[in-house]
Amino acid sequence: MNNCFSWKTIGDPAPQGSKRYVGNGRMIESCKRLKPWREQIIADAQALGLPQTITGAVNVSLVFCFTRPKAHFNSKGQLKPSAPAYKVTKPDADKLARAVLDSLTIAGIIKDDSLVTTLSAQKRYCVGSEAPGVLITVMDMEEQPFDPDA
Questions:
Q1: Which of 20, 46, 58, 122 is the least crowded, having the fewest Cβ atoms under 10 Å away?
Q2: pTM of the predicted model, to two decimals?
C-alpha cells in the first residue's frame, strides 16, 4: 500500500452534521447537496484502486476550495481590494471534514474515521481558474515510524 496518497474531488463542498426535524421523531440532513458530494468523494476514492483498507493510524489533510462570490470582483473582473483574503463564512470546517471522513470510510479507504489521529482542514477561495472542491491527502502512519525528532 502507498504510504501517502492524495487526489482532488471537484464539486461544491457540502457540510455534514446539521440536521432538521421532519416530524415523528425523524431527523434529516439539512444540506441537500451532501448526498451527491459524498457520492463524488466515494467514487474518486474508489477510483484510486488501493489494494486494501487502512486499518491503523492515519493522518488526513483536507483543503477545501470555494468559488468566490461575484461581489468580490469589480466590473472588469478584477478582485476588489476589499475582498476578504480568507473564507470565514459558512460552512464550518469541522462539518466539511465530517462529510469527507465518513465518505473515506464508506469508500473503504480507512476502516473507520476513529483511526484519524491527525486532521488538518483548511477553507480557502479558488485561485484563478481553479475548480472548487477538496484536495484530500491520506497518510498511513502505521508504515511510517514515529520520529519525535523529525
A1: 20
A2: 0.88
Per cent of the chain over pLDDT 70 is 93
Report residue 114 as a C-alpha cell.
476513529
DSSP string covering the chain: --SEEEEEEES-------EEEEETTEEEES-TTHHHHHHHHHHHHHTT--SS-B-S-EEEEEEEEEPPPGGGB-TTSPBPTTS-SS--SSSPHHHHHHHHHHHHHHTTSBS-GGGEEEEEEEEEE--TTPPSEEEEEEEETTSS---TT-
Largest Cα separation within the chain, whole Å, is 56
- Report whether 27 contacts 42 (CB < 8 A): no
